[in-house]
Write a sequence for this structure.
């Protein structure tokens, strides 16, 4: 006999624009076991309860500060989660998951079955791009707030499924930039010459810049960390080694431009990339507190 019980599905999207302050997007998607198209056979219909929702917020922090601050700070945040609950128990495909949970003797056993059967995926992102106070002196000065710029972002992903006990991916990035373009008049050492002689005209108009034209410094720190614990397909009580991949980089750039005269200029550029060494193995404060203390 075939199970001909049907399912249902629903999908919704909401976009909320709060004047020029912020924009909020929300979406949700639900499909239950048995749902399928009218042209699909029984074997092609969904065999799990699927739930998904996401929310995203976009704004500029400068909207919440006085206009005189001239703050530019675009902020974006998003969060999404997917959950798939199978109709049948993955450990025994002939038994409904609901029946397996009802037959569990303890709450710990029910939680263990749930954690093995349910597939979840979460993604969280945040970015603060180009935080800057656009305040600058009439004659640009080195300490003007407009010379400084900050950025920060992170992306976190987490997965759990019947073959993976957990899988975490964390990506962090932060940067700082300083730029200074002085406005200084060139110095004419022979401007005191009063003669209108054409032979002395070049000397009279000759000038040089006693200060550089542009100075910029940029530094960026990025950290990538991946950790996965795979389930054993042979023995559920046997724990396989944790798979870890990580990268910790620090980039620095320095650029200097100096036009000494109209025909003589110097440009200096320096790029440095450093890899920050870490201890071997996982860095997880909850699962491996001893290794975490050693890492810190």
């Amino acid at each position: 006999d075939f199970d001909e019980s049907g399912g249902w599905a629903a999908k919704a999207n909401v976009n909320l624009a709060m004047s020029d302050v912020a924009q909020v997007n929300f979406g949700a998607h639900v499909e239950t076991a048995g749902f399928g198209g009218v042209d699909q056979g029984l074997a092609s219909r969904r065999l799990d309860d699927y739930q998904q929702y996401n929310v995203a917020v976009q704004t500029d922090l400068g909207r919440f500060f006085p206009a005189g601050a001239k703050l530019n700070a675009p902020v974006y945040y998003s969060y999404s989660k997917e959950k798939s609950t199978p109709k049948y128990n993955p450990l025994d495909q002939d038994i409904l998951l609901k029946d397996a949970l009802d037959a569990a003797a303890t709450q710990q056993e029910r939680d263990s079955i749930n954690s093995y059967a349910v597939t979840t995926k979460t993604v969280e992102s945040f970015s603060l791009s180009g935080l800057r106070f656009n305040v600058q002196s009439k004659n640009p000065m080195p300490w003007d707030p407009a010379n400084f710029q900050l950025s920060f972002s992170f992306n976190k992903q987490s997965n759990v499924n019947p073959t993976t006990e957990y899988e975490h991916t964390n990506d962090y990035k932060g940067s700082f930039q300083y730029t200074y373009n002085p406005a200084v008049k060139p110095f004419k050492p022979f401007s005191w010459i009063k003669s209108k002689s054409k032979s002395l005209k070049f000397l009279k108009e000759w000038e040089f810049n006693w200060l550089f034209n542009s100075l910029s410094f940029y530094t960026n720190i990025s950290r990538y960390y991946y950790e996965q614990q795979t389930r054993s397909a042979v023995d559920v009580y046997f724990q396989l080694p944790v798979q870890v991949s990580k990268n910790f980089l620090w980039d620095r750039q320095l650029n200097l431009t100096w036009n000494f005269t109209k025909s003589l200029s110097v440009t200096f550029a320096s790029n440095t990339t450093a890899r920050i060494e870490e201890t071997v193995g996982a860095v997880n404060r909850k699962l491996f507190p001893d290794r975490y203390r050693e890492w810190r």
Q: What stands out?
A: Residues 70 and 239 are 55 Å apart (CA to CA). Helices lie at 97-103, 107-117, 198-205, 289-295. The longest helix spans residues 107-117.
